[in-house]
Amino acid sequence: MRDWNPEEYKRLVERTRDPHLRKIMQMEKLYIKERVSGSKTRTFVDAGAGNGRLLQLLSRLANDVVAVEINDKMVEELRKRAKLYKNVTVIRGDVIELDKILAEHGIEPKMPVVLSMLNTLGTAEGDPYEMINGMKKVAKKDGEMIITLFCKYSLKDWGIKMYSNLENLVGKPDLPRCDFEKGVFKTKDSYSSKWWSIEEIADIFRRLEDLISIDWIYPYFYIIHADYTGKGEYMKLGYKGLN
């Protein structure tokens, strides 16, 4: 388990001076606000919630929020933040077993909106495809799933510079061990992250059963939006923004 430092995360990520990272986080929030309909009657499930970066926004938008995180230090900070909001529940657990841990806590999400933000799938220590399956089981209950992933083609040009500014959090970049062709970044402290190609996004598209929109609205990341409600504008749209 990585030894995350919540205070460093706040300083280096939430309050980042990197213009691209800052814009990505702003666009994530804007996308959620503009593209999720009927949010006040729905349950938002932040899968890999970290230290609660999105809690303020989600608690305001949603009927209720479930924040799921597996890292102990992040969970501690997450619980501190959650005390500020009456409609937030924090669960320490593995997203791969998302449906089971929600059931164990007696939570029945209402038209769930399952979120995996800021390339969480690329930095997870478990299998990202198993995590996708875990989230999908919940989202398919008349819900939606929104995922943001970093673009492989930006790793060398922007990612290395970004990670160099995050050394106190992730460690010093280990360039000889990075594989830009495969979109793999590594540091000397054993931190690693996956950045995704269009072909890999297409594979995720198939796993989510084609009920999906893929936006590439900023050159550094993708937004993947799967809609299982049967009511959304995303149904069968395909690779929106990639054509």
Descriptors:
243 residues; Rossmann fold; 7-stranded mixed beta sheet; two-stranded antiparallel ribbon; 10 helices; disordered C terminus
Task: Characterise the protein shown here.
The chain has 243 residues and is α/β, with parallel strands linked by helices. It has a single domain, classed as Rossmann fold (3-Layer(aba) Sandwich). It has helices spanning 6-14, 19-35, 55-61, 72-82, 98-104, 120-123, 128-139, 155-164, 167-170, 198-207; strands spanning 43-47, 64-69, 88-92, 113-116, 144-150, 184-186, 192-194, 212-218, 221-227. The longest helix is centred in the first third of the chain and has 17 residues, at 19-35. It is globular. The protein starts with 5 loop residues before the first helix and ends in a 16-residue tail after the last strand. Residues 234-243 have low confidence and may be disordered.
Structure summary:
The protein is an alpha/beta fold.
* Global shape: globular
Q: Biggest β-sheet: count, sense, barrel?
A: 7 strands, mixed
What would CATH call the architecture?
3-Layer(aba) Sandwich
Q: Number of DSSP helices?
A: 10
Q: How many distinct beta strands? A: 9
Radius of gyration: 17 Å
Mean pLDDT: 91
Instruction: Determine the strand fraction and express it as a percent band.
Output: 15-25%
Gap between N and C termini? 39 Å
**Main structural class:** alpha/beta
**What is the CATH domain class?**
Alpha Beta
Order of helices and strands: HHEHEHEHEHHEHHEEHEE
CATH topology: Rossmann fold
Count of structural domains: 1
Instruction: Work out the helicity level.
Output: 25-40%
Poorly predicted runs: 234-243
Strand order, sheet with most strands? 3-2-1-4-5-9-8
The CATH superfamily is known as Vaccinia Virus protein VP39
